[in-house]
Design brief:
Helix content: over 70%
Largest sheet: none
Radius of gyration: 21 Å
Number of strands: 0
Shape: globular
Order of helices and strands: HHHHHHHHHHHHH
Distance between the termini: 27 Å
Oligomer: single chain
Structural class: mainly alpha
Length: about 450
Amino acid sequence: MKNHQEIPRFKYLFIPLLVEQLFQLLLGNMDVLMLSQYSDNSVAAVGLANQIIVVTTMIYGFINIGTTIQLTQLSSTGQKEKSAKVVSHAFYLNVMFTICMTTVLVVFNESFLKMLQTPESLMVEASTYLKVIAYGLVFHSIMGLMGSIFRSYSMVKLVMFVTIMINILNIAFNYIVLFTPITILGEGVFGVAVATNISRMIGMIVLCMYFMMHKKLLFGVINWLKLEWKAMKKILVLGVPSAGEHVSYNLSQVIITGFIASLGAATITTKIYTQAITSIVFACSMAISQAAQIITGKLIGNKMHDNAYNFSIRLLMKSIVVTTILTALIALLSATIISFFTANEDIKHLTVLLVFLSILLEPARAANVLLVSTLNVAGDVKYPVLISIIVVWGFVIPMSFVVGVWLGYGLVGIWIVFILDEWIRAFLLFLRWKKRRWQSLNILVD
């Protein structure tokens, strides 16, 4: 097995991470694509439910982030005892928070959907999808934790192969649900949600089995019975602010989706299709940022601060160029791509326009994702969430309503607000990284 104290090459990490991200996005977008052959209303219902699910997974996902930050640095030092302590405490925290989130979603699912201004025609399907996915969140949660652990040790190919397997299973199960008379998994939106849960459960089992086979080599002896508040606190102190940036952003998206929903079901569907088409760019941005986080964390763990700083700056500039070119290419193909999703001409024209506007949006988003990841792994976890709260809640939400709803510019106006938001936050985060205050931080568990 690879020596996990080495600093891995970017290419070694990026390619498997990119494949994993593409298949993760495929898992969500495959539901959209296959449901689009079934009903545009079902697409809108699943899209609304997913807005809530994304925020929920971010809330319990802060444990995975806190775990990643510590393990990425620890993995470069060979301190197995400390690493084992992080893993055991992360597992218990993860399960506890997931159970809480599942309970909240099952009990209050209709209340959350009403907050999103969900049209009555979509309420039954959206509620059904939300509840079924909620029951399977524990599979997603534990799978996410295992993925975070393996990525921290540069074992990215394993996570990639499991992600591919999950997607193949999900596509097969979706096909059975939507296009065959077999009803063993259910029908329509309910069956699609069940298919997603079963796929994730299988992925979780595979990752957990691999973890049990290799835990001694990576972590030595893990004491599952010894719980220390100090170790839990360290995960929470790092994870809560780190996830706070994601939660703040995605919660704002929930509210803005409510604004969009007030403009009609077709507008919601347009937003979902646009994000599905440009999701390949976001997958690329996420892969770059995850590779950057692993390498930067290991460099910082080895006290190579100048190398970490210079590597991240170079990669930032390259990611902006790559995402700009990639988004432009997708925009040129968008008219053809949208035809696979819908025959509605109004949705087609607006989607193409939004994809072209995304040429200005995606490079800034890529910069944001990378800078947040590198600041987090360096331990500077509070600044990104502070910036997100100020900009998103002080500018994006009110301006989305004013421009999109009140002034009547609709989804195009809201998209322009998104562009301004991403560039403002990217600039502020870039200045923070350049100040290098993160060099004096100590984030490792005692």
